[in-house]
From TrEMBL:
It comes from Zobellella iuensis. The gene is raiA. InterPro entries: RHF-like, RHF/RaiA. This is Ribosome-associated translation inhibitor RaiA. It comes from the Bacteria.
Amino acid sequence: MSIAITSHVVDISPAIRERIESRFDKLNRRQIVLINPHVVIQKEGLNYLVEAKAGVPNDTLFAQAEHEDLYAAINELGQKLERQLGRYADKPLAQRANVAQPVAEEDE
């Protein structure tokens, strides 16, 4: 999977690229195709702001994380994407449970 990583203030080192790719590899365990994943790394004050956007069939996942340490921000971002992907994967099961059951008519 090719992940687009952009940053204007931080040089994307091989270690940063590998950390991001490993977090996205964990997302692939769900067997859901991620369409055009894109990660943006910014620096705001002393904190790093990491944003990720990835398409899934009929929906889009978006998450952002902010932390003093870039690697901690990447890990937090990965956890948020994992939770979103879990909700997306379990959504059909939840909708099936909410389908109205036919009401039994009472005999008079």
